[in-house]
Amino acid sequence: MRQQKHKLTTPSKPGRQVPPSSGAGSEPSTQEIAKLVGLFNQRRYAEMETFAREITERYPKHGIGWSAMGTALLQQGRHTEVLTPLQKAADLSRGDAQPHNNLGNTYVKLGRLPEAEASYRRALELSPGFIEAHYNLGNTLLKQGRLTEAEASYRRALELKPDFVDALSKLGNTLHTLGRLPEAETSYRRVLELKQDYADAHSNLGIILRDQGRLPEAEASYRRALELKPDYAEALYNLGNALHDQDRLPEAETSYRRALEIKPDFYGAHNNLGNALGDLGKLDDAVASYQRALAIKPDYVEAHSNLYGVFS
After folding, report:
1. pLDDT recorded at residue 7
2. What's the confidence (pLDDT) of residue 64?
3. 232 and 203 in contact (C-beta within 8 Å)?
4. Secondary structure string (H, E, C) spanning 22-51
5. Three-state DSSP class for 73?
6. How many CB atoms neighbour CB 132 within 10 A?
7. Helices in 96-164 by DSSP H: which ranges?
8. Cα(176)–Cα(108) distance, integer angstroms
9. Measuring CA to CA, how many Å separate 310 from each of 34, 174, 253, 276, 299?
């Protein structure tokens, strides 16, 4: 689940110009901050890292250098080195919520979800209207299976920004998992009002419609997703499911095979292709499909059961 992007933190008001010789505890000049921002915008991350280290040496009690260093390391993929400077930036944040949000994003990348949650909550204590922190907190709660809390976070983000497409999409996912299908449908349709070319939302809407037994509508949603993104393996898989449900078995077989051309390790598609082949009377091919699914995921219970069913 995508977090809102890591941002370089800069003071809300430019710091007064203080020469480097003024000693620890002074503030970087506006020129120094502008240079950091310029290097970030130009994606010159190695140079940004070097300059950020200089800033931390000159102004060790100001958060901007630590935040910039963490951002530069993150952009270079050096995730194991990111945490210390971002923790330092958060400690020195002086009421600024952004470093806590950045720290939360880093904890998520490291798989440390409780600490990520604590960072986002600290950001929201400092800035209750921080939309991205509400969204990121929702993602972290969703990853922990705390669906009702995740829903509340997404709804709070949407109160602040009603056209926040990513939050609407994640809210739809959450409501689907909670079994509240009409509400999930409403959320996805709102996404598509705002972003008609959002292939994932068309596919997700199709899943909701299929779960409600509205198969022709589900099929139409999957086909729209595929018009927008022809190599969308998941949409091809979902289309195969809707076609199978309508007993259009040769079409379902074709859809699953197309999904597997794009994503050969898609074990669910191998399994469901096996189901379609079995219903078509192609038992040897069905067995081969189940075996391929199990070669990819040996603990796939459904494929084991289906394979056993062929021989029983």
Report:
1. 57
2. 85
3. yes
4. HCCCCCCCHHHHHHHHHHHHCCCHHHHHHH
5. helix
6. 25
7. 98-109, 113-126, 131-143, 147-160
8. 23
9. 68, 36, 18, 13, 18
